[in-house]
């Protein structure tokens, strides 16, 4: 496509969108955004990007994380939120395939209730199918088969990406075609296992000055360094953890420099209409321009068109994406299936999903032994 609603002028890069059928009977349609490298698409690496959740749209990657576009963040005035080009896009040196997985994420969907059910391991197989089934993405794009291939993702995809890399690698070893030239993986702020991560949250909080040395030393001693599934009969440990939770209760865990704000990402239809028709006061409060009306750091949440809190700039972009992705002109340009339900940034709570990878470390160990390159980073 040459133009995208929200951006003035033609796109300075090549963008393609579409659906690929996967699943046992091809009854799952995974939506994708493909951005060609702005440098040398024929030779530059190709990366498939999987946003976490599970159930979050890959728009998160395209417009918030490493893509060539972003929302301007201007005060919302009831029209289509404007887009702007970014200077940090990974697509300046790589081809990126942003895939909405599993079904129910973004604009992806399933044709049956059975197909709608997903899991961690099911994602491994479906992403592999996306790449090299009879009707796969590579079948339609054979010119990219020889490009160095990477799997990337963030957040909950820390449990999905390693399994996908292993699945692709095993397929290559079995001689499945096309042979994917997989070289490694990239993980941003990955979640690799709840037990593993929770046991490191308390030491992290101490090192970042969120809890005192005295509380940390008490927790280490009474809990034995284990803060997951604590024995309730251990009163000293339980009380210490309550004090710990109280200390961090007003801190946004994903970015400790921000307050913990309640945010509703699914904007009710009546809210959209109320904002479009009117109230300048609401616009000022929402955008954070009226400092007397908002708490510090601007954290917001909409519910029945009432602003309950203020919001961070990142959360404001989440809000704008609901207007952009639900605009009919945008959907038509992207080629979204007609009559598709209302788009939500994340649909985690609505997915019939089985969390069957409790710990991704074994997968990480296996693919590391095979010599795959890796980049694991933290981004606030």
Automatic annotation (TrEMBL):
Protein name as catalogued: Serine carboxypeptidase-like 19
Molecular function per GO: acyltransferase activity, transferring groups other than amino-acyl groups; serine-type carboxypeptidase activity
SUPFAM superfamilies noted in UniProt: alpha/beta-Hydrolases (SSF53474)
Taxonomy of the source species: Eukaryota, Viridiplantae, Streptophyta, Embryophyta, Tracheophyta
GO BP, sorted A to Z: proteolysis; secondary metabolic process
Coiled coil: none
PANTHER family attached to this UniProt entry: SERINE CARBOXYPEPTIDASE-LIKE 19, SERINE PROTEASE FAMILY S10 SERINE CARBOXYPEPTIDASE
Family, per entry: Belongs to the peptidase S10 family.
InterPro entries: AB_hydrolase_fold (IPR029058), Peptidase_S10 (IPR001563)
